[in-house]
Amino acid sequence: AQSVTQPDIHITVSEGASLELRCNYSYGATPYLFWYVQSPGQGLQLLLKYFSGDTLVQGIKGFEAEFKRSQSSFNLRKPSVHWSDAAEYFCAVGAKEYGNKLVFGAGTILRVKS
Amino acid sequence: NAGVTQTPKFQVLKTGQSMTLQCAQDMNHNSMYWYRQDPGMGLRLIYYSASEGTTDKGEVPNGYNVSRLNKREFSLRLESAAPSQTSVYFCASSVSPRANYGYTFGSGTRLTVV
Question: What is the pLDDT of residue A1?
Fold first, then answer.
């Protein structure tokens, strides 16, 4: 089945430490790739997106993500996490096989310890 | 710059009651979407409207109906609410049906059916 997988349900990192959140997808063609963040009680905010070109994309709040075609992955990274980064993060894929609509992963909850 | 506005923010229904969730966007977007968010399942598409005058089913349409009232407004109706419909509902909009533009989300409606 076509899907978007975020293998980590919860991740805890110390403030100042680096972060990597994983995302894998199973669509055949190169899809459109997104990362969204959701703070408690809020809607989803777009962090970054990839359509084509440079496989390393920069987003807001110091986040970046790298598209690796060979691994069907689009992992989100941040060099130094701040306490305000604690939130839930969603990877989303827009694929022709799904009528170009966004399909979301189950989310990864990030906890930041001081 | 309101973006996507959803009303109400919170609602408690008794089983069998009906209600309509309202969504309006002021960005002149053509496409609108309704998702539900459940723990561990990410966001799942209920219905969408690629353009004014059209609506289509998404992944989980059973028990819901929608109306694209005009270009700005897209409502979601529960005719006979069930406890399984307890969820957080998000409305989103995009410039076009192609996913490459990403979606803009509202802040959500938290619905509890007792």
Answer: 56
pLDDT at site A28: 66
Residues of chain A with pLDDT under 50: none
What is the pLDDT, as a whole number, of residue A56?
96
CA A83 vs CA A96, B65, B102: distances in Å: 37, 41, 27
Comparing C-alpha atoms, which of A40, A39, A48 is closest to residue A91? Answer: A48
* HSE of B3, CA atoms in CB hemisphere, 13 A: 13
Which residue is associated with the tokens 């963040």? A37
CB–CB of B108/B5 below 8 Å?
no
Q: Which residues pair with A89 in a beta bridge?
A: A37, A108
**Closest residue of chain A to B38, computed from CA coordinates:** A106
Smallest CA–CA separation between A81 and chain B, in Å?
23
**Whole-number Å distance between alpha carbons of B5 and B26:** 9
CB of A67 within 8 Å of a chain B CB? The answer is no
Which stretches of chain B sit within 8 Å of chain A by CB?
4, 33, 35, 40-45, 48, 58, 90, 92, 97-100, 102-108
Instruction: Kindly give the parts of chain B with pLDDT less than 70.
Output: 1
Q: What was the pLDDT predicted at B30?
A: 95
The pLDDT, as a whole number, for residue A30 is 72
Of the candidates A106, A94, A85, A76, the residue with the CA atom closest to the CA atom of residue A6? A106
